[in-house]
Amino acid sequence: MRIDPFTDALTHIKNSDFVAKKNCVVSPVSKLLINTLDILAKEKYIAGYEIKPKAEKKELIIKLNGMLTNLIAIKPRSATSYIDLEKYEKRFLPSRNVGIIILSTPKGLMTHIEAKKQKLGGRLIAFVY
Fold first, then answer.
1. Domain annotation for the chain: domains and CATH numbers
2. Can you say whether the dihedral through the CA atoms of 50, 53, 7, 38 is positive or negative?
3. What confidence tens digit (pLDDT) does each residue in 93-123 have?
4. Parallel, antiparallel, or unpaired for β 108-111 and 100-105?
5. Distance between CA atoms of 56 and 59, rounded to whole angstroms?
6. Could you tell me if residue 124 is left (phi over 0), alpha (psi between -120 and 50 degrees) or otherwise beta?
7. CB pairs under 8 A, 24+ apart, for 64-67?
8. Structure pTM?
9. From CA 40, how far away is CA 79, in angstroms rounded?
């Protein structure tokens, strides 16, 4: 029984990239996971992904490119304002301008950099570097 499929999927992606696999298959699929993968692909942490419908449930095939060092879901998903994002950057990222924090904002999922520009707060979802 899976308690948190989103965290399990991110851990599976990170472990597959660590052992230098080219592809990774993740199931079950959620909108949160797909939107997170869109951000990771846009920021060049993964090469891309494709959704394969199966008879019972969908699967994601994620193409890895070896750019992930760490990919972790933030638990609990605490709320933050854009003013406090600097504090979370210092806590989760190794140094300035290295890595991104993914937030769920009223305008959808975005990186902490975009949220600062738009002066938006939200819930912390994951971080990657």
1. 5-64 (3.30.1370.30), 74-128 (3.30.1490.10)
2. positive
3. 999 889 999 999 999 999 999 999 999 999 9
4. antiparallel
5. 10
6. beta
7. 64/13, 64/16, 64/17, 64/21, 64/22, 64/23, 64/24, 66/17, 66/20, 67/17
8. 0.93
9. 21
Which amino acid, 82?
Y
Query: DSSP 3-state assignment of 50?
Result: strand
Torsion of CA 50, 72, 36, 121, to 10 degrees: 180
Phi-psi region for residue 97, left (φ > 0), alpha (ψ -120 to 50) or beta? left
The pLDDT tens digits of the residues spanning 72-94 come to: 999 999 999 999 999 999 999 99
The three-class DSSP label of residue 76 is coil
Query: Of 8, 33, 125, nearest to 76 (Cα)?
Result: 125
